[in-house]
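This part of the workshop introduces the protein records we will be handling. To make this concrete, we reproduce a full record directly below:
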Amino acid sequence: MKKILGILSVGLLVTLLVTSFTENKESKNDGDTGIHFEKMTLAQAKKKAIETGKIIFIDCYTDWCGPCKRMAATAFKDDRVGKLYNSSFINLKIEMEKDADGPEVARMYQIKAYPTLLMIDGKGNLVKQAIGMQSADQLIALAKSVK
């Protein structure tokens, strides 16, 4: 029993250290690089999309999704991706289980896996959808496919 508790304690300690390192690494990268996700509701984004003629890019994620976290720490932080997405789209992140718009977005667009990336117009029509973790190059290709 002591060996099991010891192993569990070491595992927990390693997990905490890795999480701490990852969070610190991510916070250092929060400068001007990568995609800037706007803090607004989907309704506000739709209104802005109609006014600007831009498409809305939505990162549909959950807090427990490993690939979502990995993409947020890598591809979303890429300078090339940020430059393209920040100039061409209204960018939103929606936590599908906790954010107010999450359950409705999941129902409307039949989200069944995470991450799911949506491109929608100002009326809410689906323009493009990508399921699963995407690299920076894949995100650039996705953006170019709808421009």
Summary: The chain has a mean pLDDT of 85. Residues 1-30 form one domain. The chain has two domains: 1-30, 32-146. The helical segments are 2-28, 42-52, 66-73, 79-88, 102-108, 136-146.
